[in-house]
């Protein structure tokens, strides 16, 4: 594998799940593979899980790891070409990227959507420039439109917990006070559409996702109807995608919060969320603390999805 930014990069989904589960059974089987190889993780945004799980995954593979928080101690980076750099940005991304590439073998990048310019976000300008100019295999640690390490971990988790051939999986919008990217729901949809699960998306009017990610999913605007008979409930907030409201918060209606009454209409569903989660906005305390909440094993599987991806990138190095 040469890069990892979307579901297509992982190839056969069944083979990827099987490889991930084998890694989970023996995560120290490949400690020689990463020997004398260096992973550079670059964060343009905050992180708890991605930072720790990806570092741990690389350590399991015997790699050295360096972490750069671009906004803490590095030079402020200009990303637009052609700008007269007489402002506060001291360095251009077009020099910074190949320099960073010269110190490592593999690069992980986290760069969220700005939520101001839809075209810029959906072109994935930042991570695409890393792919083009770093000279290294690059993987996404959440880019503007996708969070594939999260979705891969979500898929591994559903595979571990499902008891039927074709579970009903419901992605539901839930309220949040600030504007969040569409990356997590886009990516979750993209990965669910690569399976044959019964996949349903529910959200208020105005929160329609990009059709390229919705794919063959059923969209149901009535949240209760969507949740009926669900085996997995995947809650997430996102800001509006559709014009003219791109990146805006259109609703903070707590009627969409996942509570026990809503979980009661499901088929005793498991509750999932990528975390970090705002309690009593997205989900009530009792639901996230319930026996059916699998948010912690879901987060733990981030180490496994990352290790599977980094292992494949290491195998692809010359
Ligand atoms: C981010 C998001 O919604 O994309 C990261 C989630 C993994 N969440 C927040 O910024 C709260
Ligand atoms: N789920 C996830 O990516 O969490 P962090 O933002 O803490 O990395």
Could you describe the 3D structure shown?
The chain has 318 residues and is α/β, with parallel strands linked by helices. It has two domains: 3-146 and 301-317, Aspartate/ornithine carbamoyltransferase (Rossmann fold, 3-Layer(aba) Sandwich), CATH 3.40.50.1370; 150-298, Rossmann fold (3-Layer(aba) Sandwich). Helices cover 35% and strands 15% of the residues. The chain contains twelve helices and twelve strands. The protein has helices at residues 13-25, 49-60, 93-101, 118-122, 125-133, 148-161, 183-192, 211-214, 223-227, 260-263, 285-288, 295-315, and strands at residues 3-4, 38-43, 64-69, 77-78, 91-92, 106-110, 138-140, 168-173, 198-202, 218-219, 232-236, 270-272. The chain has a five-stranded parallel beta sheet with strand order 1-7-6-2-3, sandwiched between helices. Strands 10-9-8-11-12 form a five-stranded parallel beta sheet. Strand 11, helix 10 and strand 12 (270-272) form a beta-alpha-beta unit. Helix 2 (49-60) crosses helix 12 (295-315), helix 6 packs across helix 7 and helix 6 packs across helix 12. It starts with a strand and ends with a helix. It binds N-acetyl-L-norvaline (AN0) and phosphoric acid mono(formamide)ester. Phosphoric acid mono(formamide)ester (CP) binds at residues 47-50, 142, 150, 274-276.
CATH topology of the largest domain: Rossmann fold
Kindly name the structural category. Answer: alpha/beta
| Element-by-element helix/strand order | EHEHEEEHEHHEHEHEHEHEHEHH
Query: Care to count the β-strands?
Result: 12
| Corresponding CATH architecture of the largest domain | 3-Layer(aba) Sandwich
β-strand percent reads: 5-15%
Helix content: 25-40%
Major sheet details: 5 strands, parallel
Uncertain spans: none
What's the shape? globular
**Total of helices:** 12
Q: Please, how many domains?
A: 2
Query: What spatial order of strands do you see in the largest sheet?
Result: 1-7-6-2-3
Spatial separation of the terminal alpha carbons: 11 Å
- Write down the overall mean pLDDT: 97
Radius of gyration in whole Å, from Cα?
20 Å
User: Any idea what the CATH superfamily of the largest domain is called?
Assistant: Aspartate/ornithine carbamoyltransferase
Classified by CATH, the class of the largest domain is Alpha Beta
């Amino acid at each position: 594998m040469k890069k990892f930014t979307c579901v297509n990069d992982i190839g056969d989904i069944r083979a990827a799940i099987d490889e991930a589960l084998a890694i989970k059974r023996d995560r120290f089987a490949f400690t020689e593979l990463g020997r004398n190889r260096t992973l550079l993780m670059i964060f343009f945004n905050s992180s708890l899980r991605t930072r720790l799980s990806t570092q741990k995954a690389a350590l399991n593979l015997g790699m050295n790891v360096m972490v750069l928080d671009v906004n803490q101690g590095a030079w402020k980076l200009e990303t637009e070409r052609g700008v007269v750099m007489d402002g506060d940005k001291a360095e251009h991304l077009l020099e910074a990227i190949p320099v960073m590439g010269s110190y490592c073998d593999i690069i992980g990048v986290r760069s969220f959507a700005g939520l101001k310019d839809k075209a810029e976000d959906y072109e994935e300008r930042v991570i695409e420039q890393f792919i083009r100019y770093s000279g290294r295999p690059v993987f996404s640690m959440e880019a503007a439109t996708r969070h594939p390490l999260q979705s891969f971990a979500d898929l591994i988790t559903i595979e571990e917990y499902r008891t039927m051939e074709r579970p009903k999986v419901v992605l539901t919008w839930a309220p949040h006070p600030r504007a969040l990217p569409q990356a997590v729901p886009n990516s979750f949809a993209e990965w669910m559409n690569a399976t044959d699960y019964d996949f349903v998306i529910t959200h208020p009017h105005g929160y329609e996702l990009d059709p390229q990610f919705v794919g063959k999913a059923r969209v149901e605007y009535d949240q209760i109807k969507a949740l009926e008979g669900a085996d997995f409930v995947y809650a997430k907030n996102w800001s509006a995608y559709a014009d003219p409201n791109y990146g805006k918060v259109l609703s903070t209606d707590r009627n969409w919060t996942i509570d026990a009454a809503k979980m009661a209409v499901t088929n005793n569903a498991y509750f999932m969320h990528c975390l970090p989660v705002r309690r009593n906005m997205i989900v009530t305390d009792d639901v996230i603390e319930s026996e059916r909440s699998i948010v912690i094993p879901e987060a733990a599987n981030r180490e496994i999805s990352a290790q599977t991806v980094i292992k494949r990138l290491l195998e692809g190095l010359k």
